[in-house]
Amino acid sequence: MQALNTRDVSQTIPLAEALFSGTAPNGGLWVPETFPQFSLLRSKSAKPRFLEIGPEILRLFLPEAPKEWLVELFDRIYPTRFDHPEITPLLEAGAPNRTFFLELFHGPTLAFKDVALTLLPHLMRYALQKSGKTGRLLVLTATSGDTGKAGLSAFRMIPDTQIFVLYPEGGISSIQREMMLEEKAPNTRVFSLKGDFDDAQHLVKSLMADKVWREDLHQRGIGLSTANSINLGRILIQVIYYFSSYLELVDRRCLQPGDPVNYCVPTGNFGNILAGYYASRMGLPVGRLICASNQNRILSDFFHTGVYDLAAHRPVLKTSSPSMDILISSNLERWIFEKLDREGRKTAELMAALTQSGRFSITLPAENAENPFFSATCDDPQCLETIGATFRKETLLIDPHTAVAVNALSQYRKATGDDTLCVVHSTASPFKFPEAMIRALEQGRKSYDMQSYDSISGNEDMRLDLLCEISGRKLPEAIKRLRQETGREPESGYPEEITRRIRRYAFERW
Ligand SMILES: *Cc1c(COP(=O)(O)O)cnc(C)c1O
Fold this sequence. Notes:
The chain is of the alpha/beta class.
């Protein structure tokens, strides 16, 4: 199968190469040339559905990948790196309200990015070897908090790779920061950027688009890629759990094959929800895709008006759901490309308008099969309120990102009266965000001595203990480890400085 460039469809590369290629040279994104169909009519499986269908879904896009190798890879890496036998368990909410939580955070870094990033380095290396192109890979990654650690954890010690991660200084939770700085493998580097996530992502994209530098790297046998969701590999792996959760619902007789399901996804860079759209194009009976935004509501406004306007939303606001504090939502380009009937020239024009004037608009198709998206916004007070209410009503502890989704789902149900069964993506462990969690849970526990909370609000260890106590949950192993480690210092600087360093470091340490 080939991959097409969203900004010039005459440019194609083998899809396998897109897995290690980052963006296209003109800044476009790679997309699959077609959407192969995946049949839902299947017999019972002895394995978790995720492990059973994962290799099959990937082979629809990479038919050249040996089946046995992929099956063996899934069976080996997911059970060893995930702490739940189902890999991506599906929980039914306590009250019978046709809501399920797909827990995507059982991997090594406690966020959904692990699902794709655990596998991606292996696919990249396979594709590189197949193409016979270059032996070494430099992976540049901007992070709004979770991709960084998941990328570091996935690429650590992988031969012939280096990963450089950039996070926005002050724009992530302190546990997210500690988790990244805990990583000391020699093929990893962590940069703290004076700027927001959009600046970090822009830096990565600019380096990718720098033909001269890329050529220099190429001369020395170094390829350039990314672990961000602009990498098509991330999206394709994420398609798997849309299908596996659906099959799981059929197995539990909550659905007949063919019944529609809604999915509600806390959204930042539009990567996870785009995978749901791709799944629908591959035959998954998706009803609505509910795109949940935090206060950085640019996507939500876009889905109501068709106008994407940076000036109206800047600056990026810091919220309790930092991994969604994004305004330039890169993967929207892939959906727009589909909506423009795959016209690369028109897509390129819109993206150029966004770069030049900070704005573009399209005529949105009516909400139907053409446009499955519904979008709603949840601000910080609503988010904390939702965490508290979900805990009290359902004894379910959800993190602030997931809470944004739960709130958006209730807005959707109120607005439309549609109570189709819905799978909410639970994207991170609550223990990554102890401060917000405690604030949320305290609101519902008036009897608790607020003074004692205030007096320890500066100390993360005590906050984590308190969260365990209030919630009655155990501290995840990954966080326990963190408590014992002392991390390294990040390299801090403004974008120009960091860019200079990355250019230099790229040639070192191989
Ligand atoms: C990255 C992230 C999101 C947003 O996912 P996108 O694919 O960028 O839309 C939501 N929640 C958490 C916890 C994340 O880490």
